[in-house]
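Hi R.,

Here are the chain sequences for the assembly we discussed:
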Amino acid sequence: MKMDAPDAVLFDLAQTPVRELNQFLHGDLAGVKRVVVGNPDGAHSIAVGVDAAVEVLIDGHAGYYAAGMNKHAAVTIAGNAGPGVAENMMSGTVRVKGFASVSAGASANGGLLVIEGDAGLRCGISLKGADIVVGGDVGAFSAFMAQAGRIVVCGNAAENLGDSLYEAVLYVKGEVKSLGADARFEPMTEGDFSAVAELLAAAGLKHDARTFKRIASAKQLYHWNADANQEY
Amino acid sequence: MCGIVGLLVKKPALRLRLGELMLPMLIGMTERGPDSAGMAVFTEPVADGLHKLSLFSGEGAAGAKYDWAALEAKLRANCDPAARLFVKANHAVLGIARPVAEVKAWLKANASVIQVLSSGTSIDLYKDVGLPADIARRYDFGALAGTHLVGHTRMATESAVTVENAHPYTAGLDWCLVHNGSLSNPHQLRRQLEPLGIEFDGDCDTEAACRYLEWRMREGDDLEAALHKGFEAFDGFFTFLMGTRDKLALVRDPFACKPAIVAETDDYVAIASEFRSLAHLPDVKHAQLFEPKPEHIYSWSI
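And here is the predicted structure of the full complex:
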């Protein structure tokens, strides 16, 4: 670790273990505005569990679970993210400049996850209230069992989008290969258009909110239907 | 959990550096697979009509003490006068002029301690139990030369930690496969293949997939057609990396639970379970990086 400006700290992961970085981020960050992580080289669990309004720049590609459980921090990954980026985020923002692997934003409660490239399968699985904006495509089974929050997809969605959705709402600009069980297209309201415009603005992505479609739960799976033919 | 690595060099000048480029890739996958490791390397093919077998003399000190010179002498006297052994600790590559099946049968009858790990015209195969770095040192992986290779680090989940159950798996000639994942119907596949005369060496789920695909190709399917049938036949989770005499191929199951990432430059195609195994390749900063899509067949030719 070294100070490269009065309020900025540099950790070179080629020299310093991730654990040391994370212990620093979990300590008293008074006076620290910005932490730069050099040579991340796909290491796991970079900047997990941060609970402070600090900026973290991961200057390369991150491995599994980067910025998991984030609270308040603004984490930017200059490259790609491995599986489970920003999983269980509570607040703050996480931005991936490249692509994100599977399960991006899994179970995230709050905050904003921006993936400028594509996201892999199961993006926003079990989402619990966070917002996710994906500049490219999302993989199969995205928003599986998503309970609350919003996902904006500027590209296409692969198979079974929104399978077993609860109250989360999805907006897709491109093609949806198929919807999962109980997900359905619904008309866009003025409230939806302004929500999409606001999320795109927060993500810094330029698209016309009027070109997005809304997908939400038909809520047919909320209650057990004993009268249905129980055929599988 | 397991780690996979693959590397194909596109320029002949890089063939001598194949092992050196791969070494940090394999060691980078140690946490994903610390109990055993293996490496299949595809070299320049042997001369027409000749073949080579990769032999293993057993684990640990007992295997290291094996009398390879005596085996070579017996082979020359009783089986194949052209037999030549190139020994590396518990492994040896055996060059032969007699048919592969005949030499394998002779070995089974006369040197039962020896396991035949691979056979073909290009493939050499090494596998052993222990940490990847120790195995790489034991067999001097850094000095391997060739066109492409397929490696694996294993964390056993469904069968014992043995050399038989370590990857890569081979079947037939110049064919190998490594697996990250778990199949739920290997016994069903095995019951389909054994009545056709296909014999199994171990009890790992991966062997069933390896032998299934080799059987399809022997029946006339090309690799792509065999893999399409595999997508129907295999139930479970898999990222498979496969090697043939002139190709690397990569597929993932429809749920793509098991990771893979590809880096491609003008010089090489490198595949690993995670980017941390690719991070030290030359010029990887300018490589085209992507995650393979589920149920999509990727292949690269030498």
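The mean pLDDT of chain B is 96. Chain B touches chain A at residues 254-257, 259, 261, 274-280, 289-291, 293-294 (CB under 8 Å).

Let me know if anything looks off.

Best,
T.
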